[in-house]
Amino acid sequence: MHHIGFTIVGFGTIAKTHLVALRTLPIIKRLPVTPVLDSLVTRRPEALAEQAKQIGFHFVTDKLETALERGQSQAVSICTPNALHAEQVKTAMSFNQAVYCEKPVTESAEQTAKLLATVPAHYPQQLAFTFRYHPAVMRIRECLKEGIIGDVLQCNIAYMRSGYLNADRPFSWRLSDELSGGGAITDIGVHALDLVRHWFGNFKQVDGRTHTFVKNRPVSVHSTEQVEVHVDDWASMHIETETGIRGSIEVSRIAYGSDAFRIHIVGTKGSMTCDLEKDRMPDVHLISGVVPSLPIPDSLELLPDEKATLGVFQDSHFAALHHFILRMTGDNRWADIAPTLSDGYAVERWVDKVIASSKQTDQ
């Protein structure tokens, strides 16, 4: 295999993030194979045909099957509304394509479980839990392995975004319970929950509440017609892992003026703090007053170096797709980092539990 042909499904912001990563990978890293942008699958093939050609795509269509029937693709990157993922994953598998799927896996844990039942063991696939590839997350994991802050007691996370506070922001698929399955808890809460699992293992219990503050939005820009919103703007969760670590997770898409992804991990010897929105390394605070030398994980090799950085958000997507390509060529390094569709289900079932519990309480 000298190249890997990619079919990209979708052309929204996250698809463009994948495209930037794939185009820059061979510039920044020496790869065992060349990623090639074979096909773009979009609802607007005619309108995007010229732009797709400029980007480097060889083919544009509105049907995934049509793209894959050409026989030039080996991997499918799925960047569409959550409720479309399951069928697109199945279609990709029917053409023996490696699957790179945006999170969450589907719009609900129930649908994800049904999909997982169709995925063969060891099928080449990866879920875009890209914060696992954040340099600070990698460093925190190594610090935890070495016991630098002692036995962990608590983990508290606050992931604050602000783009949905404006009530004039029009309705979109991310605000549709049918297409997305949830709001802040489904969109960004899954990242926070996955980091806890990634660092500390499975959950014993997750309880919480969700709330919708902006209950109606215009159908489109400048429209006076309003549509009711049934997904959350904010969620708060209390967590406990099977190993006894307790903590809290708060997520919001209306935290205007305080965008951050704050991590606070407390152990018997001290704590670690970090804001993943801006920090590439955690701050370590030890009771002893000693300033420790932090371990350097070799998985940092997946990321661009300091001179080639594209910003920490894009870098994490870059590293995730870099790892995906290496894994496709048989490189099994850092296998314990690679997130799978099953990892998605492991947090989605708790998300659905919190959503259902909150709805029942509000009745």
Explain this structure.
Strand 1, helix 1 and strand 2 form a beta-alpha-beta unit. The longest helix has 22 residues. The strands form three sheets. This protein has a seven-stranded mixed β-sheet. A six-stranded parallel β-sheet has the order 3-2-1-4-5-6, sandwiched between helices. It contains eleven helices and 15 strands. The protein is globular, with a radius of gyration of 21 Å. Helix content is 33%, strand content 24%. It is α/β, with parallel strands linked by helices and 363 residues long.
Total domain units: 2
Distance between the termini: 57 Å
Taken in chain order, the helices and strands follow as EHEHEHEHEHEHEHHHEEEEEEEEHH
CATH level-four homologous superfamily name of the largest domain: Dihydrodipicolinate Reductase, domain 2
Q: Enumerate the strands of the largest sheet in spatial order, edge to edge or round the barrel.
A: 8-11-12-7-13-14-15
Can you give me a brief rundown of this structure?
This is Gfo/Idh/MocA family oxidoreductase. The chain has 363 residues and is of the alpha/beta class.
Secondary-structure blueprint of this entry?
Layout: E1 3-9, H1 13-28, E2 34-41, H2 45-55, E3 59-61, H3 64-69, E4 75-78, H4 85-94, E5 98-101, H5 109-116, E6 125-127, H6 135-145, E7 152-160, H7 177-180, H8 184-187, H9 189-200, E8 203-211, E9 216-218, E10 226-228, E11 234-241, E12 246-252, E13 260-267, E14 270-275, E15 283-286, H10 312-328, H11 341-362
Parallel strand pairs: 1-2, 1-4, 2-3, 4-5, 5-6, 7-12
Antiparallel strand pairs: 7-13, 8-11, 9-10, 11-12, 13-14, 14-15
Helix pairs in contact: 1-10, 5-11, 9-11
Protein name: Gfo/Idh/MocA family oxidoreductase
Domain Gfo/Idh/MocA-like oxidoreductase N-terminal: 5-119
Pfam families: GFO_IDH_MocA, GFO_IDH_MocA_C3
